[in-house]
Amino acid sequence: MHEISLVRTIFRTLDDNFSPEELERVVAIELKVGPLANVEPVLLQNAFDAVVREDEIRFREAVLRVNMVPILVQCPDCNQITEVHNYRFVCACGKPCGNVVQGNELLIERVEMRD
Ligand SMILES: [Zn+2]
Predict the structure, then answer these.
(1) Out of 55-59, 89-93, 110-114, least confident range
(2) Distance from CA of residue 19 to its chain's centroid?
(3) 88: CA distance to ligand 1 center in Å?
(4) What is the pLDDT of residue 57?
């Protein structure tokens, strides 16, 4: 399951950026995920629970929040940014448009810690 390795990568990134004392105080990890990132939010939640359980030390108190963001394309002709619905990559001006400016991301948006 590739969600498991994604969660491990996220944990590794947090390890690299925070001290062990800070990591103990993490209560929420918020991700920004685009529909094109090929990630199933439910599977990501399950993977998070599984990795936390097997780790037994880190992120015991943490919850994962997956914030999905819409796909946005920017038209090379008229420069407008349009939200893509149902994978119809068409600009508001009517031209087909594959210039994705949002929708591929899988980012750690915020890490919440208790005092
Ligand atoms: Zn356009």
Answers:
(1) 55-59
(2) 22
(3) 14
(4) 74
